[in-house]
Amino acid sequence: MIIDYAYFTGLLSIGLSPDTGAPSTTRDAEREKIEYYITVYEREYLRKILGENMCSEFIDYLNSEEDNVDKWEKLLALLSEKYSPIACYIFFKYIKEGNYSVTRVGTVTSADDDAVSPMVIQMRAWNDMVDMNKRVYQLLQADEYEGVRFDPSMICRINSMGI
Question: CB under 8 Å, gap of 24 or more: what pairs does 8-16 form?
């Protein structure tokens, strides 16, 4: 994995309590939940910006003991910045599904009349990701990245109607 739970602070805070050294079942469960989202959606993000074949090549590089391969190191540097496009993508997915809970009687939302739509923070996270993805896209236009299949939706901003 390129990122971990530590990327979800500040603008991308998901409410994980800071590590105080004291054990916390809730913190551990939330950390496990975000790590699972990272496992699933980091790979999805990479497939969308690289295409299936180049994504596999990049993941193989990340999992190898190979010394610096300049093209992958440049990409890795952009993707692992403190405010990462991958983290924005995962945050968007996490918040989208976070307003729902699965129970024995079905999927439910908050019964509280004060519950608000997560769209405002989703829109900010998506549009921030798009701005960062434009730099990624420019990098991937170099000849050394021949074979990349960049999904154009990854550089399209959204508005409050999700379009």
Answer: 8/34, 8/87, 8/91, 10/83, 11/83, 11/124, 11/125, 11/128, 12/83, 12/87, 12/88, 12/91, 12/125, 14/91, 14/94, 14/95, 14/98
Handedness of CA 128, 133, 134, 136 (dihedral sign): positive
Average model confidence (pLDDT) across the chain: 88
CA angle 90, 54, 130 (to 5 degrees): 35
User: What tokens were used for 121?
Assistant: 């923070």
CB 105 within 8 A of CB 15: no
- pLDDT, mean of residues 81-85: 97
AA letter at 140: L
CA distances (Å), origin 139, targets 25, 44, 51, 82, 129? 42, 19, 15, 19, 15
